[in-house]
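Issue 218. Parser rejects a valid record. Input:
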Amino acid sequence: MPGQHGALNSVGIHGIGCDRFTGWQDGDRVEAYKLVTQRRTLST
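Output the parser choked on:
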């Protein structure tokens, strides 16, 4: 939900992966968005 966020302070199953990027540092912030594909149609 927009505006709801929190810190993951524990080590375990939490994690973020990104192809060809390994430069994560302690304190980095990540923004995530949901991409919605919608086909346009003509209606009369």
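Fixed in the parser; the record now loads. The CA atoms of residues 7 and 28 lie 11 Å apart.
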